Amino acid sequence: MGNLPAALTTFVGRRQDLAEVRDRLGATRLLTLTGVGGVGKTRLALEVAAASAPDFADGVWLVDLAAVRDPALVANATAAALGAPDLGVRPIVDQISAFLAHRSPLIVLDNCEHLVDACAELAQALLSASPGLRILTTSRRALGIFGEHIFAVPPLAPDDAVELLRDRTTAVRADFQVTDDNRAQVLRLCADLDGLPLAIELAASRLRSLTVDEAVNRLEDRFGLLTSGNRTARPHQRTLRALIDWSHELCAPAERLLWHRLSVFAGDFGLDAAEAVCAGDGIDRSEVLDVLDQLVVQSVVLPTEQNGMPRYRLLETVRQYGRDRLAESGEEQRVLRRHHDFYLALAEGIADGWSGPGQWENLTRLCAEHADLCAALAHGGDPQATLALVGALRFHWCWGRFIGEGRHWLDRALAAAPEPTPARARALWVAAWVAALQSDHPAAHRWLDEAENLGERLGDPVVCAHVQNLCGSLALSGGRLDEAVSFFEAAVAAYTETGEEIGAIYALVQMGTAQSHLGDPRATQTCGQALALSEAHGDRLAHSHAYALWTLGYNAWIRGDHDEASALIRSALEKAQGLNDHIGVALMLEALAWITAARGDLEEAGRLLGAASALLRDTGTTLSTFGLHMVEQRTRCEEDVVRALGRGAYEKALAEGAGRRGPEEAIAYALRARPELTATAPAPSPLTARERDVAALVADGLSNRQIASALGRSPRTVDGHVENILAKLGFASRARIASWWTANQEPDA
């Protein structure tokens, strides 16, 4: 468990430092690695963390704070790195504290020097909340809190410095060797560079074309100008600055220009971003890749990757140098505007095409770009453009686990741009959605009232549809079920008219839930409609598909069909795998616990209740958030389990289920054994041979369109076969077909 990046270069030397830091980390809960820029604090911390990983059952987690500029967002960055759900229901520090209370991880807070006070407050709060937590920080300044231990990272020892220079130089010049003839000059070069790893790596890139003697002589000349020949007057910072200056001067004009412009990226970036933001006025778009490669060779830009995609980044020292040069050039604001425009176009393109292919790949892309999305929002250029960006990031905020941070940016953007524009109307309903997810109903109603008025004034039917849907959600969570159904009916009609299918699915899911609890006979049809609409998109809408299965299973539970309810909820859990949806999985586990208890397995029901409770605890959410009807069902289930097992056995089962760490473990635990749906021998199949073929493919998870392709039939023909299967077996969903097939496989199938 953890998120440590894979090392792209070898770790050289520092055996004694590595051993000492590991020993100290075992003896203290907060250890800070201090030292000047370029001395290797981050690399040493990552090496220690990787070596210590077997000691931490709850993982080793890196929180890179270099791109965070607002102290108020330090805790949000930490939550994102840990995978802790940021629902904003409580202050984010309280949410992380609750998430860590029963865990014992190692957290690496990297690059804290510009956020020392915020990091100190966070570390103090988290260490107090989690007895098993260890924190390793890197900073040019100590945090200054009680219990902190300090390790001053020294420059490299001479032999280690020589080995680092040799290792990095051979990467750009394969024939380079340290020999008896040049060893004295290599030692002198490393000594002149003060044993600073970053300085040595930059110098190594220059040995592509210079001899060691030439490099020594040029550096001596440069340092002499800086210090009037007094070697002892040059601090480490001057050494590094002088070397970066030299690297900059030796770059070609296009390389220097690209270096400056790349400095606007707060985090790592892709080639498409570099081309869009940095091309023009001296660099043709087609030249960006070649120039970027030259900066990589010179160690100015570092290659990295996320989710298998190549990306690039600048070390903070190098980035800040480039930013200073960009400001001096007079083009900083123009490049920042292009940076904002790129991320606005990216966010709007993803939001507009959300129901198309690559939904979760797009969500992953937004997560990878999070630092730069925040930088674009903080730019403070055109307030209306900022409103448009914060509204376009709605799925990032609400489904990407950044709800609290989304609230921060929405509040800020709406306050800065009060004009009644289409961008404000869209941002208003997004702000209401976020507030509703936070259970801040007064704020949600306030934003919805303004959004409704502005949407009607501007004639924006999409905004009006979202308002109706969110009003229904608030009514549902408040227990006003009849009112909720009316809102959802209006929302479905509006979404259908505007072609907003995702909105229609979620309105149908919630309407089906309300109707089920009301005993409305239309509930089954509503739930089936939600499932059919989500299935039509295949795996592109896995999230909505999972919720549609859940609500159909809930409806079957209300109707008393426990077999079908169990099959549907289990299918929903299977669909939810990989989505990291704490809330959704908790609701599914709750329903499965009720069904399991009704089927007589009270001990398993207790374990499922425990797993659901742990997920809700991690989010700081209670079941009452989703309506009193949910609380009533939970209470009845608990009473049945306690009555059958006794309080002690119930608490034991609850604790066993609560031992799951996160949604993925909870899903695997719930699905570890498939219950028998019937104790009797399978009845003869009423299906034809072709219908059995179709049923088998349904059980394999294929959509109707995929089945048609596999069997060489038209989609319309397969649709008819599926309808016949459902009718013959008396089922309401494809999930039940899959369960039936598993329990009734035939030799000729």
Describe the structure.
By secondary structure, the protein is mostly helical. Helix 8 runs parallel beside helix 10 (236-250). Residues 225-234 and 676-683 have low confidence and may be disordered. A five-stranded parallel beta sheet has the order 2-3-4-1-5, with helices on both faces. A two-stranded antiparallel ribbon has the order 6-7. The chain starts with 14 loop residues before the first helix and ends in a 6-residue tail after the last helix. 65% of the residues lie in helices and 5% in strands. It is built from 37 helices and seven strands. Strand 3, helix 5 and strand 4 form a beta-alpha-beta unit. It is globular and about 90 Å long.
Helix and strand layout, with pairings?
Elements: H1 15-27, E1 30-34, H2 41-52, E2 60-64, H3 74-82, H4 92-100, E3 106-110, H5 116-129, E4 134-138, E5 148-152, H6 158-172, H7 183-192, H8 197-206, H9 212-227, H10 236-250, H11 253-262, H12 271-278, H13 288-297, E6 302-306, E7 309-313, H14 316-329, H15 332-352, H16 359-368, H17 370-378, H18 383-392, H19 394-399, H20 403-416, H21 422-437, H22 441-458, H23 461-477, H24 481-498, H25 501-518, H26 523-535, H27 542-559, H28 562-575, H29 582-598, H30 602-619, H31 628-645, H32 647-658, H33 662-670, H34 689-699, H35 704-711, H36 715-729, H37 734-743
Helix pairs in contact: 1-2, 3-4, 4-5, 6-7, 6-8, 7-9, 8-10, 9-10, 11-13, 11-14, 12-15, 15-17, 15-18, 18-20, 18-21, 20-21, 21-22, 21-23, 22-23, 23-24, 23-25, 24-25, 25-26, 25-27, 26-27, 27-28, 27-29, 28-29, 28-37, 29-30, 29-31, 29-33, 30-31, 30-32, 30-33, 31-32, 34-36, 34-37, 35-36
